[in-house]
Every structure is written in C-alpha cells, then in structure tokens.
Amino acid sequence: MSRRTPLHLVLITALVGATVTVPASPALAADLNDTFDTTAVGATPDGWTAAGGGGAAVAADVAGTVDRSLRLTDTSATAGISASRSYGATSATVVANARMRAAQTTAVVGLHLDGTAGHTVTVALDATGRIYTYSGATRVDLGAYTTNRWYDVRIVARPGTATASIWIDGQRRATNLAFRVASTTLATVQVGISAADTGTAWVDDVRTRFEPNPVSWPQVGTVAPRSASQIGTSKLIVGAETLDRDYTDYQSYKGYLGPLGATRARFQAGWAKTEKVKGSYEWAWLDAIVDDSVSRGVRPWLQTSYGNPIYAGGGGAGLGGQVPSSAEALAAWDAWVSALAARYADRVAEWEIWNEPNLGGVDPVVYADFFIRTATRIRAVQPGAVIFCCALAGVERSYADTVLTRVRDLGKLGLVNGVTYHPYNANPDASYEQVRLLRQTVDQFSASIVLRQGENGAPSRPDSFGALGELSWTELAQSKWMLRRTLADLGRGISTSVFSIADLNYPSKVNSKGLVRTGTDKKVRYAKPSYYAIQSAAALIDDTMTPITGYGVTDDTTKALAVQAFRKAGTGRQSVALWFSGATPGDDNTRTPVTLTVSAGSFADPVYVDPRTGAVFDIPAGNWSVSGTSYTFRDVPLYDSPILIADRSVVGL
Fold first, then answer.
1. What are the φ/ψ torsions at residue 218 (nearest 5 degrees)?
2. pLDDT tens across 185-203, in order?
3. Left if phi > 0, otherwise alpha if psi is -120 to 50, otherwise beta: which for 358?
4. CA dihedral in degrees (155, 142, 199, 69; nearest 10)?
5. pTM exceeding 0.90
6. Which of 39, 230, 472, 538 could cross-link to 59 by cystine, CB 3.0-4.6 Å?
C-alpha cells in the first residue's frame, strides 16, 4: 500500500542497503541470564563447568551485599580456576554482560567470550590494579579498578567484522577492537583467575543476547556515545525522581548519569526530607545531588513536592497526596519554596510545581491557586525562572483547562512557561492524538506555553509496581518502548523525560522502569539494554537536529508505520526514524523489508542505523536511488523498534 505519512526522526546514523531479503538468523541457543540467586551456596551453578584445579568455582553470598554470586577462589600459585558456560555456536553479534568484583588487585581475573580457537574477546582485571582488554595481540588499558567493588561490563562482539566494543559502568571504553584470535563464531562465556595468581573474585548477572545482522550490507561501525557534557543541549531529559523518599540511591547510580547523554534530569526537591524540624532546613542531601549533577553536564529540573507531615494540614508526603491546606502549613511551604529557590537559583533554571495533582483528586482550582503562590515565590527570587505546571497523570485536558482558566482569570498566566503530562500507554504511539488535543487546549491560552512530556517509561519485568505493571514486560520490550517514546517526542519537537534512570525500590515493591537495574539495597546491578538504546538516541539527536514537519514518505507496507525526520543545522542533511507502530513492543525482532520513497530528502551518503543495538550499516548503491530531491530506499528492514535512515555525516561513529 502506498501512502504519505508525516516523518520526524531522530538523529542517529543509518541507512539501508543491499539485499532484497533479510538473511535468516543463525541457529541460536537460548539467551543466558544467570543471577545465581537460586543456586545453593557451595554448589556449581547449573550449566556451568569448573576447570583448572587451582581452587573452586561455586555460588556464595557476598558479604556486605544482598547478592549471591559465582565466587572463584584460587588457592594455587601454579594452577588456575575457571568456570564456563556454552550458549551455542553463533555467527550473530553477541552482546554479553556481567558484573565483576575482585577481593584484591594482585591477581588476573578474566571474562572471556570464546570461539573454537580460544579467547576471542577478553576483559580482565590485572595484577596491578588495571582493567584491560585486547585489540588483536595488543593490550588496551581501560582504567583502574579497586577491590571489593562491582564493575558492570558489557561486550558487543561482532563475528561478521571480527571486532568488539567494551563498556564499563555504562561508558564505552574501547571500540573497533580486533578479535584476539580469528573466529567466525562464538560459543562460550568463561570467567577465571590465572594460573600464576591466587585470590578471590565474584561474577554475577551473566547475560548474553544474540543480535543477528538485519541485512547483509556492510557494517561500517557503531553509534559513538556522547556524554551530557559533550552534547551540551538537547531536549532529552532523564527522570531521577523519588530521592526525596529514598526509593533510589543517587550515590550508587550517579556514574551512569553523564554517560547516558540526557542533558537534564528531573529531581523532586523533597520538603519533608529537608525540613524535619519546623523552621530548620537540612540541605546537604540535595546540595550533593544538584552539585554533582551539574558537574556531569546534567542540568537539574527541580520539582517542588510533596507535603510535610510535621505540619497539621501539611499535605500528602507521596504520590497522589493532597497539597498543603492549613494556614501554618502554607506559610511553612512558602518559606521553604523561597529558601529553595534562593539556594539553587545559580544552578537550577527550570522548576515544576507538585506532581500529578489530578491523580490524588486535588481540585484543579485549588491546585491553580497553589501553583500561583508557589510560582510567585520562585519568580520573586529568580525572575527568569522557567516554571512548568500541572504535571498531569495521563493527558487530562479538562484538568489543564480548568487550571489555566483560573490562572488566566487571576491575571497570572505569565507565571506559566509550560505544561507537563505523563502519557502512560502500553503502545507509546497511541497517545499522540491526546497530546495534539492538549496542545489545542493550551493554545487557547497562549501559543508560547510549551508542552513537555515530564514522566514516562515502561517496566522491564512483568511483576513491576506502578503504571503498565500488569503487562508482561521484558528488558528487550522495554528498550523498544523507550526508543519509540523518545524519538516520537523529539520528532515532534517535544522535550521528553525518560522515566527513570534507576529502578525504584518502594518499601515492599519495585517499579522496574529504570534504565539501570538495582537490587533491594538500591545499589546498581547493571545498565539494562534500554540504557544503551537511549544512550545511542541521545548521541544522535541533540539540539543541532531540527524536527521536520510535513515530511513526505510513501511505502509499500500495509503495517502502521511511524516516521519522524530531522535536519542537521548548517548542512541540511537528514536523519529519518521509522518503526512499526501498531502494537505494544514485543520480543520478536523479525524485520520486514520495506521500500520507501521520500519526496524532499537530503542524503549524500545514507546509512542504516539501529539505535537499539547501535549498529550502523552502509546502504549499498543498489538499494537506493535519487532523482532531484526524491530518494527511494529499497528493502529497508523495519520492525517494532526504531531504525534510522541517516546521512553518514550526522552519525558519529
């Protein structure tokens, strides 16, 4: 079927290329996901084989943590100890993840992906306190390590190009590494302590996933991550909520903030956590967060929430709570807001007032009056403050309409810079008609009031607490969902917040919407696939990529297709994101070849980019043609996660 659809896109690198059919996936064993939590202490985990004779490789509880892990104990200076598990020989790209921890800096502890000829890709902790890998036979240093600290290791190994990339704690440390030994397949993951050393090490959360190349086109590289400081400005925000109630631990996940690439973070300022004794403020907890976030190039967006139980009528102290109501509580709120604005005016330019008042049944007129009194105090301290109102649960236009009507009628509409909303839909593409109507509602008051998607995400497992938690989510489905929401918002020029940076550990339940998985102790376990997907999107779409409205495209698919397009400032070169949008993202990565024609394109050297995996492929000359500004791309593999057709110049490799 041929049709024209509006296109928007994200700024990634890629185009599509040569063959008419997408190659069949290689035969694969099941993905590995070994946490060792159910293995009996002292037992070798199922599926693992210990070897070497120099000690033991068994499950053990790790002192001072909530983890049960695979512990390697090497007691011999002449024999090593290792443990390995096969996942089945494959020529597909292998994405392997594991956490590593050593009790000393004087033993070599290695994590390997092996082919038939031995160690093909290695990440190791050496006997002098350094982490290293190899490019061919050449050792490559990756930085220092310390004892009794977990390191989150990610290896992306590509047999098709015999190259690998390495991430440590969410940061890409090396890329385009040549395999240590030639191998066209990978089959085994191994961990071990070298024969010449003695010591103890732990390995946990060993996971592998296989990513068959979607096309036979040449892979030209992978998307280069950029930190928030390197990006500078963008419309991408990351949620860092609930620190006010200690459901997350900033000190544990802070190292993942900057490398993600989001240039703002949403924090809740926490009146109740700051004022525990009437009239006395404890700022140290928030100072540490704001100052550290700024140092990483991530600008804080502060929300004034929630109430404070030390005051009668002090409002609810959590989600769905009422706003303060008594004279004493309102006076204390006013004082805290003024002090908050004064303390952070030099570091915080954006504010939001209360969270989801409509969820808790706060009367919109009551909220409007509360917004005015709060915003007035912020502006008194910081005249240029950017202030967002409403923070709607869902996209409740009637609530926003009543709030803005009240604010306008009281002559205070100038206090409102933006309206925020939280559109939790199982299919992230299903909310945009509501958003369009919300935009119409807001325009009745002022076209200069911006919309911001202030909080939205999907769980990564089926037993999650909170919105969408009733569905059967996986980490793969979550990564697709996050990308679809992010690119669809950015393609419409909407600043958008990914909820959230880390899993939220409530007293008796977990909200698994984090990009980073945490344990019940709130400590980081590992960055999920969604973290790396958003990291790629952040690198590809910054403020130099302008959304293109009314972008024309025709296609030969009968499936619902989302299209978002961007233009690079200065060059005019384009990046176009496309995905099947008709259903909630799933775990099936089967691609369908689609032929597309864009009527007003600008590509000199198009590439095909999959931001979920980061892979970038050349689009061979036989798979694209141009006539004037009309470009046709043939047999582009599409699926329910965004891909990009982009000019190579707008993709950092």
1. -65, 130
2. 999 999 999 999 999 999 9
3. alpha
4. -40
5. yes
6. 39
